[in-house]
Design goal:
Shape: elongated
Radius of gyration: 24 Å
Number of strands: 8
Low-confidence stretches: 142-174
CATH class of the domain at 178-264: Alpha Beta
CATH superfamily of the domain at 178-264: Mannose-Binding Protein A, subunit A
CATH architecture of the domain at 178-264: Roll
Number of helices: 8
Keywords: Coiled coil
Largest sheet: 4 strands, antiparallel
Structural class: alpha+beta
Coiled coil: 10-37
CATH topology of the domain at 178-264: Mannose-Binding Protein A, Chain A
Distance between the termini: 51 Å
């Protein structure tokens, strides 16, 4: 990247001293090309850090004050994001996001926005269990903090923090076969525990059904966390949903926070 910045600075200086418009335009084109090369490097490199990302944004802002045609990364970043999603490259996806790619952008003929493609990838990762370490990077991508409110057993996402829903018990006769794991774990650990037993985390709907049937009453222990993880992730956020089996409340929580685990056969 230092070589690219030196090239940009040289072309920027020469452009300022040039008299002919054609000469100025030639140097400006070289500046644009250097920035495009820098963006590709940062988007695809596993060594990219936030300091480098912040620097290229500041450099572009500084140079734009003098350029006739301002530098804009948006189209290129959106393209890099979609390329990363199509090739399932977590590094390129995360870096493109940090550089400012638009998750509502669309490209190609067969699927929708970048956000919908990310949802497809994350759902596939959760369903297969024991996700590759690189793919766990995708769970760290931040969008607006949202929570879930269940209505007629379907998920809706309101724009508020940790909004909860209290479930009413109906005591049906439905019975599932659960396997208990003592202790509290973050979401990644909980998912791994169930996968290692050839089991799975329940969906939030399955936890809700078990609470409504009264099945979860036997899970309550004295002086212990009464929240249980579900496999239902909040796509585009680094969160998932859990159920408080004492209060009957469902809420969003950060994947790194701790809750209890019940695996479903």
């Amino acid at each position: 990247m230092e070589t690219i910045y030196l090239l940009i600075e040289r072309e920027f200086t020469v452009e300022a001293l040039a008299d002919a418009e054609e000469e100025k335009e030639s140097h400006q084109n070289k500046i644009h090309e250097a920035f495009r090369e820098g963006i590709i490097t940062l988007a695809k490199s596993e060594f990219t850090n936030l300091t480098q990302i912040d620097r290229i944004k500041k450099e572009a802002k500084r140079v734009n004050q003098k350029l006739k045609v301002p530098i804009s990364f948006q189209v290129q970043l959106n393209s890099l994001l979609h390329e990363g999603l199509e090739t399932k490259n977590p590094t390129q996806i995360v870096n493109s996001h940090l550089l400012g790619a638009d998750w509502e952008s669309k490209t190609g003929f067969f699927w929708g926005s970048a956000k919908s493609k990310l949802k497809e990838i994350l759902e596939g990762t959760v369903q297969t269990g024991n996700p590759n370490k690189e793919f766990k990077k995708l769970f760290t991508i931040h969008f607006e903090t949202e929570t879930i409110q269940l209505k007629d057993s379907k998920k809706e996402i309101p724009k508020s923090n940790f909004e909860k829903k209290k479930i009413k018990k109906s005591f049906s006769q439905k019975e599932n076969f659960w396997e208990h794991s003592s202790g509290s774990y973050n979401w990644y650990q909980a998912n791994q525990i169930c996968s290692s037993r050839d089991l799975r985390l329940p969906t939030i709907e399955e936890l809700e059904d078990s609470y409504e049937s009264g099945e979860t009453e036997s899970w309550i222990e004295n002086d212990s966390d009464k929240r249980y993880w579900s496999s239902t992730i909040s796509v585009g956020e680094n969160g998932a949903y859990n159920l408080d089996v004492f209060k009957g409340e469902i809420r969003w929580d950060h994947l790194s926070n701790y809750a209890r685990v019940r695996c479903l056969k």
